[in-house]
Amino acid sequence: MDIGYKAKIGDEIYFKFGIKGIVGKVYDNSVIVIITENNTHLTFERNTTVVGHKNYKILTSIKEKKQV
Question: InterPro entries of this UniProt entry (predicted)?
Fold first, then answer.
């Protein structure tokens, strides 16, 4: 991921060795993610979590979704 590039609301991201989700809210240093797929042993009390900008990769941008 390029330095300074942040996900936007609606982007699909990947983090922690197999967790995918949709960005629900963007903050200065992190995003709130609605988890859609979890292929790890990790469990979450709710289907949301906070992920720092340096800890995820964008799979599908909301811009790409609109163009399709």
Answer: DUF2187 (IPR018690)
